[in-house]
Amino acid sequence: MTDTSDDDQQQTTGTSRRGFLRTAGLAAGGAVVGAATANAQEADPLITEMQDWASATGEGVDAAPYGMPIRFETDTVRRTVPWLTADPISSINFTPIHALDGTITPQGCAFERHHSGAIELSKSDYRLMITGLVDRPLVFTYDDLMRFPRENHVYFCECAANSGMEWAGAQLNGAQFTHGMIHNMEYTGIPLRVLLEEAGVQPEGQWVFVEGADASSNGRSIPLEKAMDDVLVAFAANGEALRKEHGYPVRLVVPGWEGNMWVKWIRRIGVNHSAVEAREETSKYTDLMPDGRARKWTWEMDAKSVITSPSPQMPITHGAGPLVITGLAWSGRGAIDRVDISLDGGVNWQTARLGTQGGKYALSRFYLEIEWDGSPLLLQSRAMDDTGYVQPTKDELRDIRGLNSVYHNNGIQTWAVYENGAVENVEVST
Asked: What is the per-residue pLDDT across 137-165, written as a single tens digit (0 to 9) for each?
């Protein structure tokens, strides 16, 4: 093992990440001078001495038949905000997006939204009706559905109220709480189009009204054009059966559109000549404008992004030196084409690297590697999709939408990074 002097190290590494990683690896247990200088004078006992985990056998393959994260990762969980709603059965929890990497959300970490609580419905008791303006009203059992051709697609599901508490200013201190009403999973299901064709949609049918089997039913109207395009009747996510909280055994998947339309425990699809104008599409899930009018039918989720690390729940703990900035971007109108990052609150921008570029209606992961000198930062990310849409600032959004809305807040998020590595949710004027 070679000791490297400060002068030699400077010549070897400079601002080189490769050099930093090489020298940092020499002295995992040594004193760190700054962020990129490591002292390897003393041997690290975690390397040189026998440790407990290497001196005895571990658990057998049957110790955890399903499998759970190791105990060191128990903090990576969904969280709720108790004061958000009057009762948790009609509330939401948040995906720990700050602690995840890649793009696929484990089902057990994927946010939940319930309107009357998660129900327990078995496959044997499950029924799906197609009624209304069809040639043949049908009822499918779960086993019936398993006989139809299926598809696999990765899509994000975002609650329309994601970032909804941030309309009037910075409120919640964490990427999990400001942007965590989203998940991205590989869904397996039957195209709704196939089932509707089986029933035979009559020419007068222009809309479908979808209801769930839970007490709220959460009925939503969907234009027939969308229903016949890419909507799935899904029974699996990430290769396994849907979890109870995600609509087991069957839910609707409506790519790119607000999560409220992804009806869980789906029991009835009625084909109608017009929209039903139900509660969830009139008094709820409409966007109140400054003049008192409300926008309706705002189904698509506009392009959006957030830096997940550094963020309030993921402060910088290693001091100055190489820093990986990473986050997520998505669009309900297409695929993410580019993400820019600003270190100074939107004055200057540089293009991030798309590490895992999602397809249409899927999350993309982005990275930017920098040398941080310990100075304060105002971190922002700005997403652009393949339609040419550019994520707006919060001020640009408020100029049009005002402050009375709850839904569809896709304004640019700002994190203030302080000299000690702490991160806070802030806003900047544009």
From this structure: 999 999 999 999 999 999 999 999 999 99
Model pLDDT for residues 340-372, shown as the tens digit of each residue: 999 999 999 999 999 988 899 999 999 999 999
Which pTM does this prediction carry?
A: 0.89
Whether the bond between 249 and the residue before it is cis, its omega within 30 degrees of 0, is yes
255 in Cβ contact with 230 (< 8 Å): yes
Q: What is the pLDDT of residues 244-301, one digit of tens each?
A: 999 999 999 999 999 999 999 999 999 999 999 999 999 999 999 999 999 999 999 9
How far apart are alpha carbons 319 and 339 in whole angstroms?
A: 26
Quickly name the fold that domain 97-295 has.
Sulfite Oxidase; Chain A, domain 2 (3.90.420)
Query: What does the DSSP 8-state code read for residue 255?
Result: T
185 burial type by CB count under 10 A (0-12 exposed, 13-18 middle, 19+ buried)? buried
Helix axes 6-13, 17-24, angle to 10 degrees: 140
Q: How many other C-beta atoms lie within 10 A of the C-beta of residue 157?
A: 29
Give the strand order in the sheet containing 127-132. Answer: 138-141, 127-132, 266-272, 207-212, 220-223
The dotted CATH code for 304-426 is: 2.60.40.650
